[in-house]
Each structure stands twice: as structure tokens, then as C-alpha cells.
């Protein structure tokens, strides 16, 4: 799969709902969380896929340790 360059507006449609994959961005990198069970339905602990989670992940107990396990989809662009 080729990498995608998505704006924040484009990323919003990848919310894990209505058959869409679930993507989140962290530090400019977009990750696919579609098959991550805690992100089922595009939601995880009050957060919704399709957005930039750079700030939110700093408050998570796992911090950024989960990121290397996730498939990279592309980059978040302005």
C-alpha cells in the first residue's frame, strides 16, 4: 500500500464508522488502528479515530510505546 498524505479534514473521514477504516495521527504520522480491538468502532476511551492524537497520547498510560506496533498509513499534511 502506498503512503497517503492527508490533511486534517481528509483524515476526519477515517473515523472507523460506516465501513471506513480507523486512522489516527501522532506527530505527523498517520497510523491504522482499524484492527486494534480497543479502537473497535473508531472509539477508544472517549477519543474518536480520524483525528490528531499527538496531545492525547501523552496522557495515555502506554504513551507512544504502542506506535511501533501499528501500520503506518502516511503523513499528516497542512
Care to describe what's here?
It is a single chain. With 78 residues, this protein is mainly β. The chain has a single domain (4-76), classed as Roll (Flavocytochrome B2, Chain A, domain 1). The protein is built from one helix and six strands. Strands 1-6-3-2 form a four-stranded mixed β-sheet. The protein has a two-stranded antiparallel sheet with strand order 4-5. A hairpin with a 2-residue loop joins strand 2 and strand 3 (29-32). The two termini are 22 Å apart. It comes from Companilactobacillus versmoldensis DSM 14857 = KCTC 3814. Residues 6-77 form the Cytochrome b5 heme-binding domain. InterPro entries: Cyt_B5-like_heme/steroid-bd, Cyt_B5-like_heme/steroid_sf. This is Cytochrome b5.
Q: Which H/E pattern describes the elements? A: EHEEEEE
What is the top-level CATH class?
Alpha Beta
Count of separate structural domains: 1
Main beta-sheet strand count, sense and barrel state:
4 strands, mixed
Pfam families: Cyt-b5 (PF00173)
Domain Cytochrome b5 heme-binding: 6-77
Protein name: Cytochrome b5
Organism: Companilactobacillus versmoldensis DSM 14857 = KCTC 3814
Amino acid at each position: 500500500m502506498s503512503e497517503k498524505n492527508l490533511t486534517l479534514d481528509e483524515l476526519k473521514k477515517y473515523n472507523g464508522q460506516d465501513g471506513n477504516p480507523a486512522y489516527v495521527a501522532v506527530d505527523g504520522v498517520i497510523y491504522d488502528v482499524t484492527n486494534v480491538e480497543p479502537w473497535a468502532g473508531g472509539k477508544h476511551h472517549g477519543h474518536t479515530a480520524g483525528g490528531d492524537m499527538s496531545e492525547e497520547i501523552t496522557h495515555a498510560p502506554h504513551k507512544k510505546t504502542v506506535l511501533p506496533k501499528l501500520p503506518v498509513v502516511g503523513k499528516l499534511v497542512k
